[in-house]
Tryptophan synthase beta chain-like PALP domain-containing protein
Amino acid sequence: MAHPLRVTVADIYRAHERILPYIHKTPVFTNATYDKKIGRNAFFKAENLQKTGAFKVRGALNATLSLKEKNPDVKGVMDAIRGYGSDLVLCEPTPDARQAACDKVAKERGYHFVPPYDHHDVIAGQGTIAVEFLEQVPDLDAILVPVSGGGMTSGIAIAAKAIKPEIKVFMVEPEGKNAEESLRAGERLWPNPPRFINTIADAIRLQQLGHVTWPILLELAEKDVFSVKDEEIIEGMKFAFQRMKGNFETYGM
């Protein structure tokens, strides 16, 4: 029996229906040179072409719209988004300081704080990537997902495993996260308090997986984790910018 607080594939399908009017169905790119290089067929889900330039709009929209459905008068959402004018609150560049600043604003203004990854509706929203991906490329054997707090990876793992149980979901991390060590030990081995690691991949700098995402990934993700150095990330970005242009006709929008 599923845990009552666990995100399910049904939650993800509901999230997809909820956010579909507001997002792009992003294309899938292929590249023959890359396929030859790795000896496999690779498919790249281009969430960099998503609205706002990132996958994160999926989880944020689902959490926001779900919150509005439950409480139409909730404060602190939608109006600021519509006007593109929000207050900037500065804090020290650490996870603890960021959380403290959010908690302070929420308390002072009566806002509802939605965590960036450790949240049921955020995870469900991010999982819609896998729903689209497996519609576009049903024969996928594995999905590799960049990981920080684990919201996207958790959502993708839940959806992908429900749609295609034999599929494998691998985490890809910047060097220094050391997720494989914790996965193989079956327990969170990261130091406290949580910290950011030094990496060029500035969107996935958090060292620890979240408390909500951790058990999901411990159960569903592969224990082998791809850990990449800055030099490898730069090489990958250069290849994408130079060689992967417009090759999405077969797996399009």
